[in-house]
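User: Can you fold this complex?
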Amino acid sequence: MSPRHFASVTLVAVVALATGFVLAGQIKAQLLTPSNQLARYQALVRNVQELEATNAESRRQIAALRAQIDALESDAAARSAKTQALRDQVNDLRDHAGLVAMHGPGVEVDLRNGIPGPDTGAQAGYLVNFQDVQDVVNLLFAQGAEGIAVNDRRITPLTAFSGSAGEVVIDQGPPQSSPIKIVAVGDRNRMLAALDDPAALPGVRARQVQFQLHLTFQGSPDVSLPPYDSSLQITHVSPA
Amino acid sequence: MSARPRTTRRRPSAGRGVSVWLIALLVALVATIQIRSEAEVQRNLVGTDVSSLAFLIDDLHRANDSLDAEKADLAGRRAQLQSGQSGAADQVLKGEADRLRAIEGLVPVQGPGVVIEIDASGLTALDLQDALNNLAAGGAEAIDVNDHRVVMGVPVYQARDGVAVDGVTVPPPWTISVIGDPNRLGLVADLMAQQLRADRRVRKATYRVEADVVIRSVISAKPYVYAIPS
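Assistant: Here's the predicted assembly.
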């Protein structure tokens, strides 16, 4: 190889290398963060993840505090008949408020996202949303459910459902998304008949046809519900 | 002899040509990745809805504040029980019983809130369930519809002669009395009233924020038939 040839090859290699570095810089600086949108989005996602971790830890602490209080009350009740009678009343109230785990015959309902339709921009009808869960829960309560949990989150007298497309927020819990499992204790034959009624859950059934949204259910001789692990604060209500 | 100079001239030119093509290929490749990646990022951002994420953060902040308040309340009760003072357990249990009776709708209650009036024809149980859920999500602590106490678990369903609450038909107009944070409930009620007024079935949808809403209706406690607390 002549010196001239070597020089030209080296020049081309250096130019190629420089081009590679410049383009790599471009990729790092702009491709991953066009107008900083992705960076901002990632910051929001990190924020959500941190808040969810705090949320989970708080709920764990609440469950632990309730267990400690229960043990202390039990000790006190063992020393006084009056305290024992009060504790029995409170335990009954706690059962009905969803603060105690329960089991019994019931049903399990599964809701899963369907398939996006051709016009997915207009509405995310193929996604399970909070209204679907709300409708199933209301239907089960109307048919005699005595306790319900959604993805292991116990429903209480103060429960509210919210969320955006594809996300279901229950009370102070983190958002849930498909698949959603709703478990109810109660008269399973009555609940199964209601779930089987084509006139029930019109919104879900229409989207079963349109988007293949999944709704399946089955009865069981024994299902279990966990206790509620979040806040039951009422700060504005006083006895009338 | 004449072929040799031709060969020596071609070699550098072919090498440069290959290098130029490689660079061109590299540039084209990176440009394609750049364009496709930007499109992908845009598609992802549209799909995940950043504003929903912001609302979610707001909800989680509020939820975590509620959980902190619950923890503080429970820690206070535990301290009271641990104090060993005479009657401490009875006091804690009585306070808990009163609170749970109010939550479960077993006793009359009062407090600040809103009163919503809806006159319409053709509204269904789903409409009422949505309204009640919106109010619950807005921080409602007690709700009454036409003198029927409602909590989650009270059956609200479509009967032959209209919407029924706990087995009793409640024909419109509906008066929904709600106790809770009046500021939050006022915002929810305002939004609901606006949406209802846009509904052809609705003749009237109004609300008023009140300093003292009294709810006298109660729910009868029902013993469990199937459930076994464990």
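The first strand of chain A starts at residue 102 and ends at 112. The radius of gyration of chain A is 28 Å.
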